[in-house]
Amino acid sequence: MKLTVLSVGGSIISPDKVDYDFLASFRKMISDYLEKNKEDKLILVAGGGASARIYQDALRRIRSDAAPELQDWIGIKATHLNAMLLKAIFSDYTEDDVVTDPTDEAIRFSGRILVAGGWKPGFSTDTDAVYLASRFGGKTVVNLSNIKKVYTDDPKKNPDAKPIDRISWEDFRKIVGDEWNPGLNAPFDPIASRLASENGMIVIAADGRNIENTRAILCGEPFEGTLIGA
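Predicted structure:
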């Protein structure tokens, strides 16, 4: 049995509204994969997407002094909504409640897919993905977002930024830093990066909108993306 954790970014679940076409294609690919690999299991961890950004921005516009913790909680609740959507989409493979605390000893994983959302302030759902991978023996987290690869810098701001195929945790953490801020846009959040590094995990950062590429990752075939920690 192989377990893979997919951190499904809110940027591809709901970039500005729910992306029905992506989710339908994603469901078909995952279903086909599970039917062909009868013993494998997946953990899907949902990000917040547009709902998180819109509501966090509303709070900041009304209360410029809003505490970071309150902003985080708004984002966390948005991940719960997206997680429930994923659970419903994959209802024929899920038998357990949406996980909202990856450290809860009562978590059950009796189906083929376990779905999770955000936990608490201080990090993104990337960190929840690392916690769940560690708990259930997964060594690989696939971080699916709207970027094809990790870059040496923000390519939107720096035209000289270069895509990276493979990078060590030490060098990656120099890029993302060590601190979390609500709404932080990083290829893998700083807290999750530290935990994954300490646990000897591998993270693959890839464009989740490319369904065939995600299938290739799951099947151990050549793919486009960045391998972190190997």
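Summary: Residues 68-89 form the longest helix (22 residues).
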